[in-house]
Amino acid sequence: MNTRGRRIAVIAVALVAIGLVWGLLRLGPTSHRPGGSGRTVVDLAGREVSVPDGVDRLIALGPGSLRLVAYLGATDRIVGIEDLEKRMAREVYVRPYASTLDEQFLDLPVVGTGGPGVLPDAEKVLMCRPDLIVAVSIAPGQLDTLQAKTGVPAIYLSYGELGVWRAEARRSLALLGEVLGRSERAAELNDYITSVTEDLKQRTAGIAEKDRPAVYFGGISYKGAHGLTSTEAGYLPGRLAGARNLADELGTSGHVFVDTEQILVWDPDVVFVDVGSRLILDRDFEQNRGFYRLLTAARSGRMFSLLPYNYYNTNIELALLNAYFVGKCLYPERFGDVDMAAKAGEIMEAFLGVRPEGEIPAYRTLRFPETGPVGWR
Fold first, then answer.
1. Which of 16, 80, 189, 222 has the fewest CB atoms within 10 Å, i.e. the most exposed one?
2. 208-352 domain in CATH 3.40.50.1980?
3. pTM above 0.85?
């Protein structure tokens, strides 16, 4: 065979090899090849999805998807990650589930940038050979497209409305537990959530509306940090703690911005500030000290800091922890037995199997002196 013939033969062999590899990738994991066993589940969008009986290789996409996997203690099955999951904060009181991710996790292949509505690179997904894709905040139609491109089943999960956390989060836990073979763990966690919310409800039962202080929740983190005028109707920790949230009077739900004049008109008895807005509030106080002097809550020492519980969707454990602090501030006689450090340990262990060390970077009384910066301790 001459030199030209040998080259043609080499190229032909290479093309065949590439074709075989691509064919295997298109087939996806063994469980999805013809004859593979599986079952059909209905996801949170009402889509019927055929999933394998065993899921050993998993990719979690979108805000909060990986968190749900961490709640179920199944992060060891993750085979590809979003770039955002590598780059986001790892502080235990900002993004608690990151405490379950070891250094090897950060070395996993990156399949896409991450974020709401952002699909990964289909070829990079295929290279990870997942059994299943689970996603939050990626439209069902987009998941259909991803599923068609990769041959990998893709399940739509949901927390409900951003920042509010509705029943969808529990349903997502139950469904994810079912497909991962972790139903017992999902039920255990959902039972714990029920027990905590019932405890909070019972502690504030029977308090007349007129005896509930008027409360404003400000500086609410929502797709980033904001100043005091950022608030939320139906603010979950306040609702769980039986607070009379002034923003509920606006006739809306979820996140909203209000004017400083509206805050002065309300003149709340108690103000809670998301500690994620600390730098913004510090700057605002330097420029508008007069505004804070007009607030009854600031003058009386009844302004407090809360943890930001929305970070790449809802940290359910932090929302529950915030609720206990809100309850302690509003109804001290009914929450007198609650030690926040001990409660943090209990809740974090229930959700993630870890007890955080160190001081909680919130739950402080804010001071607004005549001169100098805001006191956050």
1. 16
2. yes
3. yes
